[in-house]
Write a structure and sequence with these properties.
Elements: E1 13-17, H1 25-34, E2 39-43, H2 49-58, E3 64-68, H3 73-82, E4 86-88, H4 94-103, E5 107-108, E6 110-111, H5 114-122, E7 127-130, H6 133-136, H7 138-148, E8 153-156, H8 162-169, E9 177-179, H9 185-189, H10 193-209
Parallel strand pairs: 1-2, 1-9, 2-3, 3-4, 4-5, 6-7, 7-8
Helix pairs in contact: 1-10, 3-4, 8-10
């Protein structure tokens, strides 16, 4: 069993990033780190995702770089070799979980049902992403899962806003919250790092309230 460097007493927000221009990586990751965010996830939804992870990891900033949308064993290996310190998957795949376990790299697989959650437990998973949380039951679903699987750690993701994030961060079974509200698409397109900085700082303050 592999444990993630996340604690229920200090649940961070994980910005979920999809990079379309490699020139954006350094200023974006630097902005998030300087705003006080400790973790981020660069997805493999674009063809340059792996390269973006390499660049982000090479900056050696005080922010953990994860790889998101990991859906195959090949991506597990590529993302790990690129410098990702943790992996996030949109669903639950035995092959992906086993590949991550073999490499001893933390993986947060995605689940949406009780059956998937039970299967994750059987694979030795101790932390799952509940996705897309706002569209499948929100806090009510999370409460139901946590009442049955009392030792499981949860990372709600999908449709969360800065307003709703506060409620998830207060949940005792939540170790992190994933979202993109601090990365509006128009700000990224305009390379408006000051706006991203403002939203990331507000998010960092939100996390600080929970400590």
């Amino acid at each position: 069993m592999i444990r993630l460097p996340l604690q229920r007493t200090h649940a961070p927000v994980i910005p979920v990033i999809t990079v379309h221009d490699l020139n954006d990586v350094a200023p974006l990751i630097t902005t998030l780190a300087e705003a006080g965010l400790s973790t981020c996830e660069i997805t493999l939804r674009s063809e340059i995702g792996i390269e973006a992870i390499q660049i982000a990891a090479s900056l050696q900033l005080d922010i953990a770089i994860g790889a998101g949308t990991v859906t195959s064993p090949d991506q597990v290996l590529a993302a790990t070799e690129a410098g990702a310190t943790f992996l996030v998957s949109p669903g639950l795949s035995q092959e992906v979980v086993r590949s991550a376990q073999q490499l001893e790299v933390p993986l947060i697989p995605g689940i949406a049902t009780a059956s998937e959650l039970q299967a994750a437990v059987a694979l030795g998973v101790n932390t799952v992403k509940v996705f897309p949380i706002e569209h499948i039951g929100g806090l009510g679903l999370l409460n139901a899962f946590a009442s049955v699987w009392t030792t499981m750690n949860f990372v709600p993701t999908g449709g969360i806003t800065i307003e709703s994030a506060r409620n998830y961060l207060q949940h005792p079974a939540v170790v992190a919250v994933g979202g993109s509200w601090m990365l509006p698409s128009d700000a990224l397109k305009a390379k408006d790092w000051s706006r991203v900085s403002h939203l990331a700082s507000r998010t960092s303050q939100l996390v600080g309230e929970q400590q």
